[in-house]
Amino acid sequence: MNLVFKDQTFSFELLRTLSYTPYGGADIGECLSTAYRIEEGSFESWYTEWYKTAERIHALAQDSMEQGNRISAREFYMRASNYYRTAEFFLHGVPSDPRILETWGKSRTTFRQAIRLMDTLVEQVEIVYEGGYLPAYFYRVDDLQRPTLLVHGGFDSTGEELYLEVAAAALQRGYNCITFEGPGQGAVIREQQIPFRNDWEKVVTPVVDYLLTRPEVDPQRIALVGISLGGYLAPRAAAFEHRLAACIANDGLFSNQFGEMGRKLHQGFTGDLNDPSYMKEFISLLMDKSTNVRWAIENGMFTFKADSINELMEKTEPFTLEGVADKIKCPTLVCEAEDDHFFAGQPQQLYDALTCPKTFMKFTAEEGAEEHCHFGALLLLNHRLFDWLDQTLHVKEENPFNETAVV
């Protein structure tokens, strides 16, 4: 699915930003007009133009507040948050770049201004975690005890983005939802400088502990949702945290070992990948030729706090579900995107390794849902995910359709 750009990575990230339109995170014209101003393949141009749009929408939000237009202000703040997130996306090649904290910080601030103007019941939460904390948002439908989703992102998402991706849809369907950032993500890497870890159960368990203190949470119906790299992280956590009633991997991921990825990309080349100097030279060559490889390496070094490509290879080596997937006990849903350019074939590999009750759900190009994590088709994605959750957690619709109603 090519959108405006020939560059696959730029096209995908534009699609990702645009995909939040149904949930108030984008407006189509704003996104397209921004994209057409961007120089193909230029990270700097990407930042400049998205930041410009974010600032313009942010100013409209503040003007709406001054005019007393609560709904307009909320809508402008929400879109500004998504656009600031998008602007910051490709900046991680220089971790000391002050624009990272400044732009990401505006994404968080505008989101928090937006949720203060919502009718939704939402709380900012800090969950105690190994001397630090995990920033979270707890969204609840009302004061009743309800099934609850525990949602985290992956390699590059933020807690604020997760509202647009999952939480808004959960609330519409009567689910509570807690979204949080763990090591390597959002504020945890940017402010606390805590990098990714492979044993994600150590991250999820404190969040489950917190949820069990909430009277609005049904302790027997807590489901874990992991997105993108979260398709590895969530199953890893579910293998050891057995208080979960269900697990969703969107999309399924069996391993995230940068060394293995390098070996696959090396096919057709000569040279010894076991030679650290050659490995560095080879990956650097790929980074010059591929926007996707450049971004993946730069963001990997940023989120894993690796000082070199070889150190990044070492730090990602434990990220595999080999010998782990068969320890999952709860029902697990594995999603696959037909044309996933990140992790092709990995969902099936994860599904085959599971011994728990399991479901494989494929999204296709015919449905417009073939991209990684099904961006471009979030309404369809959430429809199918929540149908599965309703059946798995035995959730009954509160207001079934009245067949005698006049249409």
TrEMBL record:
SUPFAM superfamilies: alpha/beta-Hydrolases. GO terms for molecular function: hydrolase activity. InterPro entries: AB_hydrolase_1, AB_hydrolase_fold, FrsA_esterase. The keyword Hydrolase applies. Keywords: Hydrolase. It comes from the Bacteria. Coiled coil: none annotated. The keyword Ribonucleoprotein does not apply. Residues 149-354 form the AB hydrolase-1 domain. Belongs to the AB hydrolase superfamily. FUS2 hydrolase family. PANTHER family: CONIDIAL PIGMENT BIOSYNTHESIS PROTEIN AYG1 (AFU_ORTHOLOGUE AFUA_2G17550), DIENELACTONE HYDROLASE DOMAIN-CONTAINING PROTEIN-RELATED. This is Alpha/beta fold hydrolase. It comes from Paenibacillus radicis (ex Xue et al. 2023).
